[in-house]
TrEMBL record:
Gene3D superfamilies: Winged helix-like DNA-binding domain superfamily/Winged helix DNA-binding domain (1.10.10.10). PANTHER family: HTH-TYPE TRANSCRIPTIONAL REPRESSOR YETL (PTHR33164:SF43), TRANSCRIPTIONAL REGULATOR, MARR FAMILY (PTHR33164). SUPFAM superfamilies: Winged helix' DNA-binding domain. It holds the Pfam family MarR_2. PROSITE patterns: HTH_MARR_2 (PS50995). The lineage of its organism: Bacteria, Bacillati, Actinomycetota, Actinomycetes, Actinomycetales. This is HTH marR-type domain-containing protein.
Length: 177
């Protein structure tokens, strides 16, 4: 059974409603993706494209290669090529040759791209507010700090051994019915 670790309950007994941290985060991510898709459905920029526009805007007009986009988002060359092609067809990015390296395609956000990104950002911010609804300012800051720490831990996990079975990573979170 997915999300459950431990012995199966005896016949006729209800299974405890506990799930792993991974299960909870996976389902939180799915719910977040659905909310973001709904929030951005009526706009010009889907969530994946908004991320690329935000990344390019943060580079302050510096020519950016498709490889840099691939590495930043951890996606394949064909995925980035498709994103850049769609953004270019909408006029949100300009694509040319990098003056410093003629072999490299350079991608830059346009003024229209900045406007589209800002519109998408407002929708994304509204979803973020929905996620944090009912959190105090301190809880919100702590939640964001813990998410960043967990992301760091997983980045480091690529070179670290798996946690022992008695580590905090193996603990379960009770889910209120």
């Amino acid at each position: 059974m997915i999300g459950w670790r431990g012995p199966e309950p005896m016949k006729g007994m209800a299974m405890p409603r506990t799930h792993s941290i991974s299960w909870n985060l996976k389902h939180l991510n799915k719910a977040l993706e659905r909310a973001l898709m709904r929030a951005l459905a009526d706009g010009d920029v889907p969530y994946s494209q908004a991320g690329v526009l935000s990344f390019l805007a943060g580079r302050a007009g510096e020519p950016t290669s498709q490889r840099q986009i691939e590495e930043y988002f951890g996606v394949s060359n064909p995925a980035v090529s498709g994103l850049v092609k769609r953004l270019h067809s909408k006029g949100f990015v300009a694509v040319g040759t990098d003056p410093a390296d003629q072999r490299r395609r350079a991608v830059q956000i346009t003024a229209a791209g900045l406007t589209a990104m800002e519109t998408a950002r407002r929708s994304i911010d509204a979803v973020d507010e929905q996620v944090l609804d009912g959190f105090t300012a301190a809880e919100s800051a702590e939640f964001q700090r813990l998410i960043a720490k967990a992301r760091h831990n997983l980045s480091a996990a690529a070179v670290s051994p798996l946690p022992a079975s008695d580590s905090p990573a193996s603990q379960r979170i009770e889910v209120n019915a």
